[in-house]
Write a structure and sequence with these properties.
Strand content: 35-45%
Structural class: mainly beta
Distance between the termini: 58 Å
Order of helices and strands: EHEEHEEEHEEEEEEH
Strand order of the largest sheet: 1-9-6-12-2
Helix content: 10-25%
Shape: elongated
C-alpha cells in the first residue's frame, strides 16, 4: 500500500489529469458479474447517478483489455459512501498484465469512506510508466462486510497524444534532416 487516498471533486480530477487523455474508449470492458441494468454501460456513461452493481461473490472484477500495449498513467474511480453505504468498496486492488493469466498487482488501496473521485497513479514496481494489454480493478472488500459492490464511474488515463499541424514543423537536430525542413 502506497500513498494516502484523497477524494477529488470533478474539477480537481480534471486539473490532476489535464496532461493525460481518457483512453477507456479504446478498450474492451468486462465485469465479473452485474445486476441487469447495472453494467458496463452505467459504469462508463459519465453520469455520477448511475453505477455498476455486482451480483456474485467477491472479489468483484472490472477488466479493461486493450488491443495493443498501452501506456496507462492513472485510473480514477468515483465512489460515494453516503449514497451506497455497505455497497461501497473498502479495499481495491489494481492489477496489470498481458492477459487474465499473468496479472500482477500494481497497487492496493484502502479507500475509507469515499465521496468523490479516487485517483490511483500506476507506476510499475521499478517506477517506470505502466505499459500493458490488460488492467483489472478488483473490489476486494466492502464497508460493513457488504456482499455486492457499487462503482459509479471508472476512467483510465494515458499519455496525451501529440498533435502536429501543417504550420508547426518539427525541430531537427541533425544537419541532414534540417536542410530539408523548409518548403520553398
Amino acid at each position: 500500500m502506497a500513498s494516502e487516498v484523497k477524494n477529488m471533486s470533478q474539477e480537481e480530477l480534471e486539473e490532476y489529469t489535464s496532461r493525460y487523455q481518457e483512453i477507456g474508449e479504446q478498450a474492451v470492458w468486462s465485469l465479473s458479474s452485474c445486476k441487469p441494468g447495472f453494467g458496463i454501460k452505467q459504469l462508463r456513461d459519465n453520469n455520477l447517478d448511475t453505477y455498476w452493481q455486482s451480483d456474485g461473490t467477491q472479489p468483484h472484477l472490472v477488466n479493461v483489455q486493450f488491443r495493443r500495449k498501452t501506456t496507462i498513467n492513472c485510473i480514477a474511480i468515483y465512489a460515494d459512501f453516503k449514497s451506497d453505504e455497505s455497497y461501497t468498496p473498502n479495499k481495491i486492488s489494481v492489477r496489470a498484465g498481458n492477459n487474465f493469466h499473468d496479472l500482477q498487482e500494481i497497487e492496493s488501496k484502502e479507500i475509507g469512506e469515499p465521496c468523490g473521485w479516487i485517483c490511483i497513479d500506476l507506476p510499475t514496481p521499478s517506477g517506470k510508466t505502466l505499459k500493458t494489454f490488460m488492467l483489472q480493478v478488483a473490489a476486494l472488500s466492502n464497508h460493513q462486510n457488504g456482499r455486492d459492490t457499487h462503482m459509479r464511474q471508472i476512467k483510465v488515463f494515458g499519455k496525451q497524444k501529440e498533435h502536429f499541424s501543417v504550420t508547426k514543423m518539427p525541430t531537427f537536430s541533425s544537419t541532414e534532416c534540417s536542410m530539408y525542413s523548409s518548403i520553398r
